């Protein structure tokens, strides 16, 4: 299978233009120009634009991760590889969901659900059986991704048997910074993600003191684009590993 880019990555990069368009809508004249009321209005407008762009940016990134995870499941379902090629964490997740459903049921219904579980999901653990696309669910996987915090990303990718995705992102993002010749110092992806999510949450919860500058939002945009490219590569490698005929 060719190593191609995920469609979710292309869609995410396209969505970043919306953030850039929003940032460009802020007043371009120096904030010190004009009357006091005009200066105050422009400051408020700049803050509103930057705050909105921050929320939009993180929403687009979180949407990208969910779309990319969905694309992974769709590719596996279409290829129908033998289950031995699937990450065991993914198999366990699907089985666990059904077991939890059974133990949440009382009386005779539990017997019926148990029978249905074993008749439908036992095949996931038969290494030579092809994957039943009706059993795999993107929703089961994407439900594990609740926000863009580093520990959440690490947990989701561990389900896919990807170990230490944060270290992989560190290497990719810092190499991208060097390749661009950016003057920025090395970044720790986990720290940066935590900062970005916290700032977004403060804005979303009405904290008026959170006032990112345009420069900061543009920096976050570049950072999240690098992170998205790394995650897309990791997921594409997982798809290739699961769906390869070799």
From TrEMBL:
Q: Where is the RiboL-PSP-HEPN domain?
A: 12-236
Write down the InterPro entries for this protein, in alphabetical order. Answer: HEPN_RiboL-PSP (IPR041519)
Pfam families, per database record: HEPN_RiboL-PSP
Report the protein name in the record.
MAE_28990/MAE_18760 family HEPN-like nuclease
Phylogenetic placement of the source organism: Bacteria, Bacillati, Actinomycetota, Actinomycetes, Kitasatosporales
């Amino acid at each position: 299978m060719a190593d191609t880019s995920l469609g979710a990555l292309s869609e995410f990069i396209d969505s970043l233009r919306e953030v850039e368009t929003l940032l460009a809508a802020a007043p371009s004249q120096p904030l010190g120009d004009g009357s006091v009321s005009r200066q105050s209005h422009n400051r408020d407008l700049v803050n509103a634009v930057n705050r909105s762009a921050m929320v939009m940016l993180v929403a687009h990134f979180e949407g990208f991760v969910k779309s990319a995870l969905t694309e992974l499941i769709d590719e596996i379902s279409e290829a129908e590889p033998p289950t031995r090629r699937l990450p065991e964490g993914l198999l366990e997740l699907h089985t666990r969901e059904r077991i939890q459903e059974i133990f949440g049921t009382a009386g005779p219904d539990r017997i019926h659900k148990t029978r249905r579980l074993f008749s439908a999901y036992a095949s996931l653990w038969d290494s030579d059986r092809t994957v039943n696309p009706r059993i795999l669910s993107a929703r089961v996987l994407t439900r594990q991704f609740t926000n863009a915090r580093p520990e959440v990303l690490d947990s989701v990718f561990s389900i896919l048997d990807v170990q230490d995705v944060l270290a992989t992102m560190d290497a990719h993002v810092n190499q991208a910074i060097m390749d661009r010749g950016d003057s920025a110092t090395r970044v720790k992806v986990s720290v940066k993600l935590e900062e970005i999510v916290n700032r977004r949450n403060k804005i979303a919860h009405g904290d008026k003191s959170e006032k990112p500058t345009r420069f900061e939002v543009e920096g976050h945009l570049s950072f999240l684009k690098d992170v998205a490219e790394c995650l897309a590569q990791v997921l594409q490698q997982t798809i290739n590993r699961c769906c390869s005929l070799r």
